[in-house]
Every structure is written in structure tokens, then in C-alpha cells.
Amino acid sequence: MRLATLRWWIVALVCCGTILNYLARNSLGVLAPTLTTELNLSTQQYSWIVGAFQLAYTVMQPICGIIIDTFGLKLAFAGFALAWSLANMAHGFANGWLSRAFFRGLLGVSEAGAIPAGIKAVGEWFTAKDRSIAVGFFNAGTSLGALIAPPVVIWLLVAHGWRAAFVATGAIGILWAIAWYVFYDPPSRHRALSAEDRAAAKAEAETRAKVKPTSAMELIRKRSFWAIAVPRFLSEPAWQTFSFWIPLYLAKERGMDIKQIALFAWLPFLAADAGGILGGYISPFLMRFRIGLLTSRAIGVAAGAILMIAPACVGLAGDPYTAIALFCVGGFAHQAISVLLNTLTADVFPLESVGRANGLVGMAGWTGGLLFSLLIGALADTVGYGPLFGLLGVFDVLGAILLFALLRPARMDAAAP
User: Fold this and answer.
1) What is the extent of the structural domain holding 329?
2) Local confidence band at 1 (pLDDT 50, 70, 90 cut-offs)
3) What CATH code is carried by the domain that includes residue 59?
4) Radius of gyration of the chain (CA)
5) Angstrom distance (rounded) from CA 132 to CA 335
6) Closest alpha carbon to 21 in 100, 115, 98
7) What's the CA dihedral at 140, 143, 144, 147 to 10 degrees?
8) How many domains are there within the chain?
9) pTM of the full predicted structure?
10) Rounded Cα distance, 115 and 93, in Å
């Protein structure tokens, strides 16, 4: 098989992993209205459960990146998938908010490896021009997982109870972990590649092996790191809000029952799929007009930031269906931004350091998401969700401005060979 064909099968495999990652992750959000009632959880206690996941995920992202760079993508990604599957299954045995927060933290520890692993895979298999398209397709798994979570999890809830919902959505990830370990290898060793492509990839890998990986301290001293990390810090609260708070918002402020939530809560994630895939094509399209690689990425981020004004207006919506439509625009916009910011880490940093670079950037993003979730937990019952959602548009516009100011993409494109 030729490299040009096999690499898309690799993207499909990564996409399946991210689907299962986000199915497990979003199970809690979908079950939140049921759990808060049956376990008598307050909004703030629920925010602490969410916060346990976010804190663990935030701290572990750079560590997961280092593990991936050190032990290799094949072993590391399979190990992370096995761990997050078992952690999600354990949720079915929790009764109070403390035990649920503990298992949620374990889930965060293991799920933190998924995105750095995906970016590393794209870096190994794709050239710079095609990376954003590849990231768009594998990143679509994040919203596909979130999309199928409401109908799948609520069906399991109605048919078998909430404990079975956690166990089932976790168990399927074990099968994927086995598949990844069996079928994945880097291009230099993949048995499905032609001998010619393997030899070329091996020569390139040997050349890269001579390059010493950039340490974490060296990375964070670079201006280019902060140019990506700060916009991620500002953009990530939107996705955390969509993933963990939309069902609870629809139940508490819009009066929707669990069946109505199952019918409509997946729509923003369907829009997010479209945004993730189309966002990957923005950069190659703009490059046809002689716009540089990094500049084309930054322009795409700015366009997505403007669209994020829509979910910022959710509090002004006159009915729940208009609110869901605005969330859909936000899902589309955020995933376009996410694809381009994630791709920039593979553009700006050497492949040997992409795992840790993306992990550190992700840590910055999840710090923003964690802080915002705690803010929602502390204020939603008093000021309402509307003003808090309004901040999301402000954050993304500011992030796009800072991306241009710190990265200076036009100057970097002009200096590139």
C-alpha cells in the first residue's frame, strides 16, 4: 500500500479513538440532570466533579506528551485508551460526589493523552500542507463522540440505568486499545507500506533521531509557544462549556426534560464536526492565493472567533431552539479554531517535540476551561448562565488578536525557506 493511501487509514483509526474518548468523557454531562437529582448533587458539587477531571487533565497533558515522545506512539496511546476505559467504567460504582470526583480525576489523567497522540500521528504521517486537513478529520472524532453521547447514553440510561451507561461507554474503548496496538506503527516500520516508502520514511526518521528533543523549559521560553498557548487558554472554555454544561443548562434554564435533551443536545456537536473538517481546509484554500502557511492558519482562527459571538448571545435567545441554534454556530466555530491551533503546534515545533509541545499548549487551554467551569459552578445559580456564556465570544476574539500579535505569522512566513 502506498503512503498516500495508508496515512488516511491511520487518521480514521485515530478518529475512532477520539470518538470513544469523547463518548466516555461526555457521559457525565449527559447524565448530569439524572445524577444531580438521584444523588442530590448541588450545581457547585457537580462543578467540583467536572473540575476534578479538568484539573487532572490539565496537569497530565504535558506529562502525557513526554510519555508519547519517550515511549513511542504505539505503546503510549494504547495504554492511555485502556486506562481511560477502565476509569469510565468505574464511574458506575460511585455513589457520592467525592467518589465520582475521584474516578473523574482518574479519567482526566488517562484521557489527557488523546490529543497529543493524535497530533503526533499527524506529524509522523503528513507533510505541513496537509496537516490541517488531517487534524480536521481526526479532530472530528471529538465532536462525533460528543454528538452520539446524548442519544446513546440516554438510551442506556432508560434501558439499563445510569450505572450501565458508564460501564458500556467505557468498555468499548478497551477494544479500540487492542486494535491500535495491533495495527499502528510509524511509517518507517509499518508492514502495510511498500518497501520503497518504508525505506524513505526510515531514512527521514534516522535524520530526525539525530535532533535532540526540545525540553519543556526551552519550549515555554519561546515566544511562539505563548502565541499558541494563550489563544488556547482563551478558546478552551467554550468547548468545556459545551461538553459539560449544555444538558444541565437546557434542563435548568430552558425547562427541557431528559428526552428533549436527547433529541437536541447532540446538534451543536454535529455542527462542530462540520467546523472541524471544514476548518482543516481553510488553510490550503487560502494558500492558493499566495497566503503563507502560518498566516492562513491565523486568518482561519480569526474567522472562527468572529462566529463565536453567536453563542455569546445565548442568554438573549427567546426560546430553547434558538439557543440550540446559537450553540450550533459556536460548535462549528470552536472546532475550526481548535483544528488550526492544534495544527500550529506541528507547524511551529520539531516533530521530536510535538507531543510535549501540544501537551503544554493543551495544559494552558484546559487551565482556562477548568477556571471557567468553576466560575459557572459558583455563579450560575445566582447570575444565570447567560452572562457567563457572553464571555465566550469575548475570549475568542481576544485570543485571535493575541495570536497575530505574538506569533507574527506574516513575518515568520516571509522568513521560511
Assistant:
1) 3-415
2) low
3) 1.20.1250.20
4) 20
5) 12
6) 115
7) -160
8) 1
9) 0.77
10) 28
